[in-house]
Design brief:
globular; Glutaredoxin; Glutathione S-transferase Yfyf (Class Pi), Chain A, domain 2; 275 residues; 6% strand; 2 domains
Length: 275
């Protein structure tokens, strides 16, 4: 197997956790996202969207990290990371939908406003324009442009905060039922798919703003970080420069994120308890 990866890529990280859980062997080819290698013609033959990760197994190309994880479980079923019952499989996939329909964009916008915006500013104008021209999706382009121009005050960052708040509220409700994992009593792709997104908030020094008063979520997160697969896929893959950059960048926007979260909570309370 060949896995195309990006450095500190949250979508790559959930695939790596899955592969480590299954004790698989593979080759890695790094795609340098800040040199725009994802837009090279050769890579686009594998992944026309120009994103990572991409998995190639026996000549077959699999894209989209959520689908890659399910493909790996189907292809290498021991240990299984998908519940047996149809109902629990549906519940597992609902967590994946949380990511694919909001949480990925939320994490991208918060991360971008914290640190990747500065990296983009330090690119040459030619490199920067390659990024803007190759977004492809008008809605994604609007988010990208807004976050680049406005930083943490982009409305998309506010939407991201709301998406995380909704996620953690739901997690707290589910985990408060005295269960250790999100679906049933076993680790599943539902947990694995979420881990890198929660990790990114922690590395940015922002996670406690969301879960300080959510004991069940904090306990779940402690269990996740204790998994060898998590350690190998995320902390062990990062160097001191990566972690210090994330913490410093996130700390710069921490108080503004706190203020925006408070604004969101006030709006949510008003909507739930109209006068």
């Amino acid at each position: 197997m060949l896995l195309f990866t990006g450095r500190n890529s949250i979508c790559t990280q959930k695939v790596l956790i899955t592969m480590f859980e299954k004790n698989l062997s593979w080759q890695t080819k790094r795609v340098d996202l800040f040199k725009n290698e994802q837009y090279d013609a050769e890579y686009l033959k594998y992944n026309p969207k120009g994103v990572v990760p991409t998995l190639v197994n026996d000549g077959q190309v699999i894209v989209e990290s959520t689908l890659i994880c399910e493909y790996l479980d189907d292809t290498f079923p021991v240990p299984s990371l998908i519940p047996d019952s149809p109902y629990e499989r549906t519940q597992m996939r609902l967590w994946s939908k949380h990511i694919d329909e909001g949480l990925f964009e939320a994490t991208r916008e918060i991360s971008f406003s914290a640190m990747f915006r500065d990296k983009l500013r330090n690119m040459s104008e030619e490199q920067r324009q390659i990024r803007f021209r190759n977004i492809g999706d008008p809605a994604r382009s609007a988010r990208f442009t807004s976050t680049y121009e406005q930083g943490v005050d982009s409305p998309y960052v506010f939407y991201g905060i709301a998406a995380f708040e909704k996620l953690f509220r739901h997690m707290s409700e589910v985990l408060s039922e005295r269960r250790e994992w999100l679906v049933g009593n076993a680790l599943s792709l539902g947990d694995i798919n979420l881990m890198p997104f929660v990790a990114r908030l922690e590395y940015l020094n922002l996670l406690d703003l969301f879960i300080a008063d959510r004991e069940a979520v904090r306990s779940w997160w402690h269990r996740c970080k204790g998994l060898p697969s998590y350690q190998k896929a995320i902390p062990d893959m990062l160097n001191d420069e990566d972690t210090s950059e994330m913490r410093a960048s996130g700390t710069k926007i921490r108080e503004r994120i706190r203020e925006l979260r408070a604004d969101h909570l006030a709006q949510h309370h008003k909507a739930m308890h109209p006068a």
